[in-house]
Specification:
This protein has 360 residues and is of the alpha/beta class. The chain has one domain: Metal-dependent hydrolases (TIM Barrel, Alpha-Beta Barrel), CATH 3.20.20. The longest helix has 18 residues. It is globular, with a radius of gyration of 20 Å.
């Protein structure tokens, strides 16, 4: 409940844990739709496999809902483990979903079928991340991609889920060509595919702007700030999108948390490696606000926009009938002060009061 005097409203008949919101801003819990919750990577060999996520990786960064997936490695990371980790995060206190598959086509599934995974695994809501325009992709044909997206759509319809296909966009010159062909030559709607890492380069981002004009959706990666890079920072990307689409409804943002961030030379050899973090979502929100964008706009990609696209009931808004997923920010710095997930206080006064099972 939210109100000026909750103790009076409940007349002392119900125990009430009151959080003083003075000097704070309350926003909906953030949704990170692209996280390697099992860990990812391995592009530099077995020792470069990144660690799996723990509960406070999310809660201390404002995340109350996550979507887990597999990436380059669909061998030592598998669907059974992904589903188990998804369930574990739900048990620990946040909301977690997963996608079936990995970079590669034919994809890694649990039941042997995309449609069966989406229909029969409660927490499975789509497919991803399928790699295109990337030297690490399995180079699927147009026909293979079309059938995969079609199966995801029908599986989603039959299970009342989104059936979204999350598509990893690499830096290759083909860009969005195959996705554009898929939508233009079939009856599949724009909302069935979400190209991510769209801001990894300026050329790809320009294609993404054209994609939005057509009716498509794009996902920006919340890259870390202050590091030399060829990517388009989220704040700049948001500004350019708002210039052409004031409604700002077709853009989402995710962290690529726990994923490896490899650096390749011109020969395609891995020469360095970092690890993604869900902390970058709130960092990029703060950066966008510092640069003059309104907070109520820049949180849409990680609240109402992605909740609508993924058909997440009760998520993405503060309203009657919605889940009690709430984030409290300092009104000046926008630093995280508190977090409530599924009605339970997990962060209070900047400290995690609930931790993951094996966190110290």
């Amino acid at each position: 409940a939210v109100g000026p005097d909750l103790s009076a409203d409940f007349n002392g008949k119900v125990p009430v844990d009151i959080i003083d919101g003075s000097g704070l801003i309350m926003i909906p819990g953030l949704i990170d739709n692209h996280v390697h919750i099992l860990g990812g990577g391995g592009e530099g060999g077995f020792r470069t496999r990144t660690p799996e996520a723990v509960l406070t990786d999310f809660t201390l960064n404002g995340i109350t809902t996550v979507c887990g997936l597999l990436g380059t490695d669909g061998v030592t990371r598998n669907m059974a483990s992904l589903v188990a980790k998804t369930e574990a995060l739900n048990e620990e206190g946040i909301t977690a979903y997963c996608y079936t598959g990995s970079y590669h086509v034919p994809i890694t599934t649990l039941t042997g079928s995309v449609m069966k995974d989406i229909m029969l695994i409660d927490r499975c809501i789509g497919v991803g991340e399928i790699a295109l325009s990337d030297h690490r992709s399995s180079q699927p044909t147009y026909e293979e991609l079309s059938r995969l997206v079609a199966d995801a759509r029908v599986g989603g319809m039959l299970a009342a889920k989104a059936g979204l296909v999350d598509i990893h966009m690499g830096g290759g010159p083909r860009g969005l060509t195959m996705i554009c062909r898929l939508i233009h030559e079939t009856e599949i709607p724009y909302s069935q595919v979400l190209p991510t890492h769209i801001n990894r380069s300026r050329d790809l981002f320009s294609e993404g702007l054209d994609w939005i004009k057509e009716g498509g959706y794009i996902d920006l990666t919340a890259y870390g700030l202050g590091k030399p890079s060829s990517d388009v920072p989220a704040a700049e990307g948001f500004t350019r999108i708002l210039d052409q689409d004031p409604a700002f409804d077709h853009v989402t943002m995710s962290s690529d948390g726990q994923g490896s961030l490899p650096k390749f030379n011109e020969k395609g050899d891995c020469i360095g490696l970092g690890v993604g973090s869900s902390a970058t979502i709130l960092e990029n929100i703060k950066d966008a606000v510092r640069k003059g964008l309104p907070l109520e706009k820049v949180i849409k990609p990680v609240t109402s926009n992605i909740a609508s696209l993924l058909k997440l009931k009760g998520k993405g808004r503060i309203a009657a009938g919605y889940d009690a997923d709430l984030v409290l920010l300092d009104e000046r710095s926008l630093d995280l002060v508190g977090l409530v997930a599924k009605g339970r206080i997990l962060v209070r006064d900047t400290k995690a009061v609930v931790k993951g099972t094996f966190e110290i």
